Each structure stands twice: as C-alpha cells, then as structure tokens.
Amino acid sequence: MTLLTALGRKGLGAVRGTGALALVVGRTFLALPKLERRELGRALVQFGYGSLPLALATAALAGIIVVLQSGIYVQRLGARAFLGWAAGYGVLWEFGPLLLGLIMSARIGARNAAELALMQVGGQIEGLRGIGLDPFAILVAPRVVAMEVSMLALSTFTFLVAILFESVAALLTLGLPLRVFFGTFSQLLGPWDVLGGVVKTGTFGLAISLLSTTVGLSARGGAQAVGQAAASAVVQGCAAIFILDFVLTAVLAGWMG
Length: 257
Fold this sequence. Notes:
9 helices, 257 residues, Permease_MalE, mainly alpha
C-alpha cells in the first residue's frame, strides 16, 4: 500500500465519518419532539445516577490535588490568601469540566456505543425500522438528552464537592482558614466564571453523546465490531474534549475579557 493510497483511505474515512455525524445530529434533532420518555428515564438513571459515585470521588481527589499543587507556588510567592481564588478558578474553568468529560466519555460514551452497536449488528435497529418505528425517537434522542442533562447535573455536584475538599485540604495542609479561602473565592470569582465551566461541560456532554451514537450506529460485522465501537467512542470522545476545551477556552476567555 502506497502512502498516497493510505492518505486517500484516511481522507475518505474522515469524510464518511463527518457525514454520518451530521446525519445523526439532524435526525436526532428532528426526533426530539417524539422521544420515548421511558427510555429517557432509564437513560437518566443509567448515565446520570449511576455515574454519581465515580464523579464525586474524582471531584474530591481533583480538589485535593489542585490545592496540593497550587499550594507550593502560592507559598513561594507569599500569596496564600489567594489560594481560594486560584483553586476555585482551576476547578470551575478547567479541571472540573475536563475531568468530568473524560470520565463520562469512558463510562457512558463507551457504554452507549457498545449498546447501539450490539443492536445494530444484531438487527434490532433494522427491525424497528421494519415495523415503522423510528430508532432515533425510541433509542437515540432519549440517550442524547439524558447524557446532556446528566453532565450538567453532575457538574453542579462535582464543582461543589471539589471546592469543599479544596477548602478542607487548604486548611489541613497550609493552615488557611476557611473564611480566607471562601473570602477570595467569593470576591474574585463571579457568575461568568461559573458560566464558563457550565458551557464547557454542556458542550463536552453533547460531543460525547453524538460521537458515541454515531460510532455505535456505524458498527458493522459481528461481536468484534461491538468492542471496536466502544474503544473508538472513547478515543474520539477524549480527542473531541481536548479540541473543544482549547477552542472554548480561547473563545470564552477573549469574550469575557
């Protein structure tokens, strides 16, 4: 195989993948008014409630690590009083959305892709079409909505837990009183800082749901295709999160001045 042939196949695959993603986005949007509510409830429990323990544990550890790492520099610079602002800004803007996105891509993105791929190769998707039912209204739209709602709800809990553990870690490791930590946190951080984290989290959730759905519905073959779909969903989801994080950070930081 020549280099030109390999590049051509890669380019063709990228075009085919982009077209499949656009088709999933369009059909999901059209199916939203008639989505299956029981599937939505099941997906909310599975994706949101089921991910809560892992998300909270990660948020607690992330909060402690941010304080331990940033504490080294604020002590060197004699700026301990600003630790609340620095740690809160890092969690709200960067570590919170990024870690939550990566966790959810690995957990619910892979699961969603594997389930849809299993139904695709097993013929259930085609069977729904055969009896006049829309798979996007029954299976896809409820999952996309559930993943988006779960991400936004989980972000609220993870932000709160991360900040709480940050304040306790600052007290125990640096002796920083809670009133000083939350004083700079409330004085120097505003609603726009919270909004930036929410926008990032929502965008990551949408990317995870649409990419994993596209990968799952594109699966062809046997049981091997299911495993490949799950792995591909994680890789594509993580790559999309890092790209979107770069773009959103640049755009939002410039917009907010």
